[in-house]
Amino acid sequence: MIQSERLLLRPMQSQDAQTLFGYRSDPRVAEYQGWLPGDLGAAQAFCLAQSKQAPNQPDTWMQLSLCLHEGAMIGDLGLHFLEDGHQVEFGISLAPAHQGQGYANEAMLAVFDWLFSTLGKHRIFCSVDPRNLPSMAMAKALGMRQEAHFVKSLFFKGAWVDDVVFGLLAQEWRLPKAQGGQTG
Length: 184
Known about the structure:
Layout: E1 2-3, E2 7-11, H1 17-24, H2 27-30, H3 40-51, E3 60-68, E4 73-81, E5 87-94, H4 103-118, E6 123-128, H5 133-141, E7 145-156, E8 159-169, E9 182-183
Parallel strand pairs: 5-6
Antiparallel strand pairs: 1-2, 1-9, 2-3, 3-4, 4-5, 6-8, 7-8
Helix pairs in contact: 1-3
């Protein structure tokens, strides 16, 4: 588990399926998502499979449930542990009611600290559709550097779209003291 001031990031559990299905099916969340649960059964199968996924396994995705300290799930965070064992790709989704409140940045700061300080990762990166302005702003606010802007390089939902890659190296990472993330 990873904790921050307001959040707990924990392994996904079977009982997260209804909440996951609810916000991942919302068109405002689904617009830039690669995986969408087709129905509640698909969300249940996904949550069950993820509940068994161990962290830091090369060439795997691990989905964490993003929860308020009182227990309410407000989103999820995916971590792709690359085959090389030194790099991690991430993606994050929040229910619309919890967007714009700093939860994504807070969660990512705590996760960055865990990945760099505890797991000793070399590089963390994300791939963002440049039309997704909140995600672009989040990557910049987290101190990530724009490494690339690939033009119409990704065939996504029936159209060719741009792909912007942001990255951060361990040597560049400094946990902002005001955010105070911790793991446990």
